[in-house]
Amino acid sequence: MSRVLITGSAQGLGLMAARLLAGDGHAVTLHARSTARAQDARAALPAARAVVVGDLSCIAGIRQVADQANARGPYDAVIHNAGVGYREPRPIRTEDGLEHIFAINVLAPYLLTGLIQRPGRLVYLSSGMHRGGDPALTDPQWEHRRWNGSQAYADSKLSDVVLAFAVARLWTGVLSNAVEPGWVPTRMGGPGAPDDMSLAPVTQAWLAVSPDPDATVTGGYFYHQKPRTPHPAARDLTTQDRLLSYCAELTGVTL
């Protein structure tokens, strides 16, 4: 039995992965952004061992989640599933003054990685759209560029792969991988998404707990339990260090 924390698991792919893991006898901790959503998550998966609560759009909320996780940990695996899409018509600023997509999709997994007691495995949810991302971190808060929600999302998902590979490089003894779940009909993906919804949560659950040699690797990018080639910049050490340094400046936490 493994102890697994899944962020953004009150609904969608996070909850689906949690159901798979709990059904196999693993001890799952869910995450919800509010008390009301935590109650919904409890009702949706009574087998969950706990629910941590905190808004990942702000640094205070991210720290709140990390504190609760550490009080209930340690964990064998953390799945960084929480994320937001790209349909906002303009940049949304968080209470920290950060762009909303960047804050939730990039800064939250970075800071949680740095604050939560180090698990044996880390899984970061990315997207096939990451291949259109800009690795340069030019104006990541969209203060000077004309807003493009899909580009902001692609940039954030590339950063998630960069983060996964950076952790794999820096943290020996931790298996750190990124996952492309496919374009599936979640609330984010939309009703017309063509990929198989039943397969979307399988790979992250597999990477979190499986003893399969194909799952016990680090620095990989996976789609439906198979390695897939990521954006080449994700393995560039300068790109990795640039992202880590930028997130450290914003949070005061260094990996």
Report a brief summary of the structure:
This protein is 38% helix and 13% strand. With 255 residues, the protein is an alpha/beta fold. The protein has an eight-stranded mixed beta sheet, with helices on both faces.
Helix- and strand-based class? alpha/beta
The radius of gyration is: 17 Å
How much of the sequence lies in strands comes to 5-15%
Please tell me the overall pLDDT.
94
Which strands sit side by side, in order, in the main sheet? 3-2-1-4-5-6-7-8
For the report, how would you describe the main beta sheet?
8 strands, mixed
Helix coverage percent: 25-40%
The coarse overall form would be globular
Termini separation: 28 Å
Number of helices, where a helix is a run of at least 4 consecutive DSSP H or I residues:
7
Low-confidence stretches: none
Topology pattern, helix = H, strand = E: EHEHEHEHEHEHEEH
Q: What order do the helices and strands come in, and which of them pair?
A:
Layout: E1 3-6, H1 12-23, E2 27-32, H2 35-44, E3 50-53, H3 59-72, E4 77-80, H4 100-115, E5 121-125, H5 149-170, E6 175-179, H6 202-209, E7 221-223, E8 226-227, H7 237-251
Parallel strand pairs: 1-2, 1-4, 2-3, 4-5, 5-6, 6-7
Antiparallel strand pairs: 7-8
